[in-house]
Amino acid sequence: MLTLSLVLWPMLCAGLFLLLPAERGKSIAIVFSFVELVLAFIAFRSLNAVDNESAGLLVFAIPWSSLLGSTFAFSLDGVSALLVLLAALVYPLALVTLREAQTPRFFALFFLLQAALVGVFTARDGLLFYVFWELALIPAYFLCFLWGSGEGRWRTTLRFFIYTLIGSLAMLVALVYIYLHTPIPHSFAWDVLASTARTLPDNVQGVLFWALFLAFAVKMPLVPVHSWQPDIYAGASTPVTIALSALMAKMGAFGLLYWLLPFVPQAFAAYGDIATSLCIASLLYASLVALAQKDIKRLIAYSSLAHMGMIAAGICSRSQAGVEGAALQMFSHGVNVAGLFLIAEYLQRSTGTLELSRMGGLKATHRGLATAFFIIAMGSVALPLTNGFVGEFLMLAGLAKISLWFAASAGLAVILGALYMLRAYQQTMLGPLHSPSQRSVALTLSDKAVFTVLCLFVVVVGVYPSPLLSACSKALAALPILP
Amino acid sequence: MTALVAMSLLGVLAMVAELLRLRKIIGFCVGLGLAVVVVLAIGDLGSSWIPAIMKDALVFDNAVDIASALLAGIALFWFLLAGNAYVRSNPSDLAALVCFSLSGAITMVAANSLVMLFLGIEMLSIPLYVLAGSERHRFSSNEAALKYFLMGAFASAFLLFGIALVYGAAGAFGYPDIAAYVESAKPASPMFVAGIVLIFTGLAFKASLVPFHFWAPDVYEGAPTPVTAFMATVVKIAAFVTLYRFFDLCRISETGNVWPGFVSSVALLSLIVGNVLAFAQTNVKRMLAYSSISHAGFLAMSLLAVGSGTGQRALLFYAAVYAVATLTALYIVHRVGIGRGSESIDAFDGLARQDSAAGFALTTALFSLAGIPPLAGFFAKYMMFSIAIERGAWGLAIAAVLASLLGVGYYFKIVIAMYGRSSEHTAIPVLFGLTRSVVLLLSVLLIVLGFFPDLFAALA
Q1: Is the pLDDT of residue A53 over 60?
Q2: d(Cα A122, Cα A127) in Å, to the nearest integer?
């Protein structure tokens, strides 16, 4: 019931926003998102209680369509609860920092996106998973298109839509194929699909592997299906970019973990190394391109691409450390990238530009912003004692178990990450004051609160990751993914 | 049976109303009559009936009752939306033509004999030849009527020749007798197979399947938009249900292994040709005509599953969802054409800002036609995919996937125009009054059917 309410509440909010008057939309939205945060926190805490009552609380299944063999099944375990918590956490942060007044339609679409995201993370039925996966596209498309900036944005958003649709259609064909091979009466339930897929012959599993991998690769994204990402992240308005980079990208990684790894283990044995190489190639490519970026939002977009490549590599390594590290890193990266895009937003407000060469010396006038930028950047760079480090270390250890070359390349990319992130900090905060006409926009109390929360997450999770890490490992131990 | 009788009586009443000078109430009466027909058809559910007076030429089982209810229901919504378009000129004549056309559709669907099939097709088509040309002062309407008539005559010729060949081989017109012939004579004689192919061709003309689709874009574009809506929904549904029942009741699939490949190739061609050509269109009506060719391809996919319940369910569900979405879309195109004087994509610029109900309804309809969850169109397409995959028709499944993708491309052109571009048109609301409520109801229906696909499909 709790799980269902996590999905239904944002949908209800979206519906309510279509009926509300135009003023005070932002305050109401913040209140709604806090309710979701409370629910997500309760759900995460109740995971620790092992008794039957909370198990009933967290699993929800009613028959949906016997015609289609699908049930309305939602459940939470460690990793999905963590991601739902991330979704619930990022939303109030994104909404509080919103400056311009928005129409109710914006908030309705924004909450619909959250509902779809939570649905993807909690659905335990193949058709339901697919419906929520596609459902996330519609608000994302309209949010990027109607509230974005940039001349060619109809082209970039259409490209985004079509790329994602190609991936999802491949996923649909794969899921339908597995469904038709489940014992009669056919069922789309997750465990039935997983057990059926494992019994399919190896060559079929190979095709299924690549079809599902394509779908998840487009979402994360991975090179070479990534070209929609930088334009979209740079062109959308900040709350939308935060939702996309912190949350929607995790849909792809979550799919790899829950909807690919348990389904086709034999194919993983055959193709896992190729997939890992692809992820590491994506990681290196993104890091190198990020070095060349002059616009801070695009730099953060490419760094997000790099981090997602690392997470995917960790998952494809199939080692316990790699997979656990990836699961935790999904959460950490979500927090970090949300913080980075917020920093970029404030930089734009203060200096009126996003170009790194036109900023400089902001530390003197923007002390709070500089501190927050430094802490979050260090989290992104994976300095020890930050949240990024725990995940990166585990993933590198996992990759080293397969091949030292993988770990070395990934390590190289981490170093490149430090390079471009520190250089970005240097170019914006340090050095001489670039243009004397910079407005000194002081951080309001709510802005400071947001950044404090983010920095706290960076530091606290870095120093004491064990509650999150143990939740992840408990959930992953229950999944039939490790050989 | 009662539904058919009621529909025919309604047509006669509409014709007579002209004589009795009852013009003013004819609209209300026909609307009420259509609702009564829907109720009668649903009331007949659960009883299977072969009326003896027709010498077993008609059969009214569950599938026929549902199809009749669907056809009458679509016609009812059509009438609510577009009926008053003719209020000024000859309302009773046109109402009568539509009612007779519908009785032809029901006859086709209920046919248990090739003679009835032919009768039904003619009853369906001839009023539509007239209706297509009903805007007498517009050249393209006359052109559409002539093209439709010539195509229809051609199709009837094919159909009759096929019927003659089948009669020559099987010795009877009735479906049960033909099924008995198929059982006894394996392999079937070449004359029989040729007859079946010709009958399929005749029906495929009506359903606008490739390569018998060349008439569709010109006729759909030229005819008055309400008539296009009628043609794109009722005629297609009737043609496909008839085709399905013919294949099913006559056990055609047992005559040889050629049918799955034949049906798959026709469906595949329709999917690809329809969507590829739709991409290049700038006139929205023409674009919807080409996209209806690809939807015909999807509907044809259900013919692969003749004989099992899934094929029938998938066909009826897809037909219902497609009809609702097409009605909504074409009606809004009609209103935009009247309000802004053009039916090209540019005429839709900024529509969403000026009339949000129209924007919402058209977006929902287009998303459903494109097959995007959670709208009902996605589930309909999904059922067709799973039919193809279950039978190992991989080429067809992949073509269907690619076709959906192409569909998104051109449907989005309209959505982008509505939301993205601003226009200098004055903010006249495109929808108002009763029609506005009906259009919004249809959009909500698409969303609800998406959440509860069982609602409709459980009936079949």
Answers
A1: no
A2: 13
CB B289 within 8 A of CB B412: no
Q: Is B383 on the interface with A (CB under 8 A)?
A: yes
* pTM, to two decimals: 0.87
Q: Extract the tokens encoding A406.
A: 């993988």
Q: How far is CA A108 from CA A15, A138, A140, in A?
A: 7, 12, 12
How far is the C-alpha of A134 from the C-alpha of B412, rounded, in Å?
Answer: 16
Question: Lowest mean pLDDT: which of A36-45, A261-270, A436-445, B191-200?
Answer: A436-445
- Quick check: A173 contacting B, CB < 8 Å? yes
* C-alpha A279 chain-centroid distance: 16
What pLDDT is stored for residue B101 in this prediction? 93
Distances, alpha carbon A73 to alpha carbons A55, A124, A187, A252, B376, in Å? 14, 5, 12, 20, 20
Q: Six-digit token pair at A277?
A: 């190489």
Contact A267, A201 (CB under 8 A): no
The radius of gyration of chain B's CA atoms, rounded to the nearest angstrom, is 21
Q: Measure the CA–CA gap between A42 and A53, rounded to whole angstroms.
A: 14
Supply the pLDDT for residue B460: 54
Specify which residues A321 forms β-bridges with.
Answer: none
- Most confident residue range from A331-345, B335-349, B384-398: A331-345
How far apart CA B112 and CA B154 sit, in angstroms, is 23
Residue A169, pLDDT > 90, answer: no
- Tokens, residue B81: 């939306």
* Residue pair B370/B291 in contact by the 8 Å Cβ criterion: no
Listed by number, the residues of chain B in 399-418 with a beta carbon closer than 8 Å to a beta carbon of chain A are 401, 404-405, 408-409, 412, 416
State the burial class of residue A109 (Cβ atoms within 10 Å of its Cβ: 0-12, 13-18, 19+).
buried
What the block records as the tokens of B143 is 């052109």
- In chain A, residues with a C-beta closer than 8 Å to the C-beta of B457 are 65, 67
Among all chains, which residue has been given the structure tokens 């058809």?
A: B41
Does B25 score more than 80 pLDDT? Answer: no
Please give the Cα distance from A244 to A239 (Å, whole number). 9
The DSSP H or E segment spanning A72 is strand A70-75
Which letter, b or e, does each residue of A375-388 get, where b requires 16 or more Cβ atoms within 10 Å of its Cβ? Answer: bbbbbbbbbeebbb
Size of interface A-B (CB pairs under 8 A): 70
Rounded CA-CA distance B379/B455 in Å is 12
Task: State the ipTM, two decimals.
Answer: 0.81
Q: What angle do CA A402, A407, A408 make, to 5 degrees?
A: 135
Residue listed under structure tokens 């990266």: A333
- A177 close to B (CB below 8 A): yes
Omega cis (within 30) before A480: no
Q: CA B330: distance to chain centroid?
A: 13
> Which one-letter DSSP state was computed for residue A97?
T
